[in-house]
C-alpha cells in the first residue's frame, strides 16, 4: 500500500501520480490523504480524504493525449458530496453514489465539502461494455439504493481492507471481480438506446444549442426556454433527464463555463468582472460570484488573477509541460 499526505499546492502532483493528470484548485488550508492498493493489470483502488472544497479539471488538451493512458475512474463518496461534469452531463454525487469518468474526454469534478471516497482506476479495455455504453455511462450517478451499487460499494470497502493479505494472483482475481460488479452497476444507468436520433433527441439538441447561443439573455430561464420551443416545463425536464441533468442546471453550467473561459482569456482582461457576468446572463454580480465560487472553489477575480497574472504565464499542461490556452 502506498500512502501520501499532501497540501493543496501538491494536489496536482498527487492527481497525476495516482489518478489522472489534471489541473486542481483548492480552498485555503486544504490538506488531503490518499492510500493506494494495486491489483495488477494497471488497476488500483484508492481511499482518499479531501480536507475541504476543491475543483479538478482535465482539459481537452490533456484528454487528446490520452491514447497511452486510456483510463477510467469510478469514484464512490462515503461522506461529503460533489458533482461531476462530462459529455454535457452534470451528475450530483451525494454520499453513497458512484460516478464514472473517462480520461479521453474533458471532465470537471467539484467537491463543495470535506469528502472521503474510494476510487477505482483501470484501463478501459477491462470493462466488458461497448465503447458507446461506457461513454453514455460517464457522469451519470449510480444511486446508492441500486442493489448492484450496494454490492459494489460494500465489496470495494472490504477489498481495500483485505488487499494486504492477498497474494498477487488473488489480487488480480479480486480486481477482475470488482470490474464485473461495476459493469453490472453501470448497466442500471446506461440508456438502452444511447444517442438515438428520434424527434426527442432532435428537440433536446435544439434546446441545448439555443442555450449556448443565448447565454447573454438574462430572460432565458427554464420557463422561457420551454416556451420558445413550444413544450411544457415538465416536458423540458423530461428531455434534459436524457443527459442526466435539469434545464436549470444545464443553463447555469453553460453560463459558468463561458464565464470561466472569458476570465482565462487575455483578450478579455480589460473587462470588469461585472461585464463578464452580464455577458453570460448574470445581472446580479453577487449572485454570479457566489455561483462561480461554489462551482470552481474560488472567486472570479481570484481565478483571473491566478490564471492570467501568476508569473505572467498560463497554467502548464500536466502531461506535456506546454501552456494551456
TrEMBL record:
> Pfam families per the record?
AraC_binding_2, HTH_18
Chain ranges of the HTH araC/xylS-type domain: 205-306
Superkingdom field = Bacteria
SUPFAM superfamilies in the record, alphabetically?
Homeodomain-like
Keyword DNA-binding attached: yes
The record's keywords, sorted A to Z, are:
DNA-binding, Transcription, Transcription regulation
> What Gene3D superfamilies does this protein map onto?
Homeodomain-like
Q: Where are the transmembrane segments?
A: none
Asked if the record carries the keyword DNA-binding, the reply is yes
Protein name, per record: Helix-turn-helix transcriptional regulator
Q: Which organism is it from?
A: Pseudonocardia yunnanensis
Q: What is the lineage of its organism?
A: Bacteria, Bacillati, Actinomycetota, Actinomycetes, Pseudonocardiales
